[in-house]
Amino acid sequence: MYHICLDIGNTRMKVGIFHPEKEDEFLHFEKYELNTFIELQNQYPQNRIIVSSTARLNIEIENYLKSQKGFLAVSSELKFPFHNLYFTPQTLGADRYALAAAASMLYPATNCLIIDAGTCITLDFVNQDGEYLGGSIHPGIKMRLLALHNYTGKLPLVEKKWTDKLVGQSTIECIQTGTIAGTIKEIDGFIDDYRKKYSDLVVLLTGGDTDLFFYKLKNEIFANPNLVLIGLQKIAIYNA
Q: What does the angle CA 184 – CA 52 – CA 231 come to, to the nearest 5 degrees?
């Protein structure tokens, strides 16, 4: 049986195709419509579809997915390979459930900090006892750049580009230093605090800005751009 795992984000959709006897496939869609899902279903029959979505799906797509045999949407009602200690589990994002599931099964009995660098930057923590404790939510790089442009009268919209300058010598350089380099320092600071409190910490990085973060964070991390999809497959198996 195939598992078709859909990670539907605010800017694009990632798809993981998992089969026990074949190599895993990972696909990306910058745009998607109902036919995209129909073609996936036709190409991979006898499957189970599991969805994590941070975007609002139109009713046509939502109804189609719900009509498929074996459809599973991530919610607090499912079973998970970790003990959830989040105070409001019904408000926890499906992508964060998937990340916690991936970490707890890939690194059992290990303190894991998962960083998802996307539209928002989320930090999620699963301890060595298999307990999900929560984490933090930060504005993503693009969101920070847009906020500076939209909420001021004259600051330009700057491209997402790394700079190692401590002292920006133009408005563009100052924005890039403040947003991009500043975010790197922010996340490194959080990692340092986690390491002080939790020994033998494994730090996992995923999300659309993985490449921007991976070579700049001073802390040792393991990058996997498909961590949400892997977590979705683990949840599907756990709820079989």
A: 70
Task: Give the model's pLDDT for residue 53.
Answer: 87
**75-240: which CATH topology?**
Nucleotidyltransferase; domain 5 (3.30.420)
CATH class belonging to 1-73: alpha beta
Tell me whether residue 200 is one of the annotated catalytic residues: no
Nearest alpha carbon to residue 201 among 219, 183, 175, 218 = 219
Domain coordinates in residue numbering, the chain = 1-73, 75-240
Please write the tens of the pLDDT for every residue from 35-72. 999 999 888 877 889 999 887 888 999 999 999 888 99
pTM: 0.93
| Predicted local distance difference test score (pLDDT) of residue 54 | 80
Sign of the Cα torsion 221, 225, 228, 230 reads: negative
Q: Find the catalytic residue in 95, 116, 124, 209.
A: 95
DSSP one-letter string for 191-223:
HHHHHHHSSSEEEEEESTTHHHHHTT-SS--EE
CA distance 94 to 186: 25
Query: DSSP secondary-structure letter at 79?
Result: -
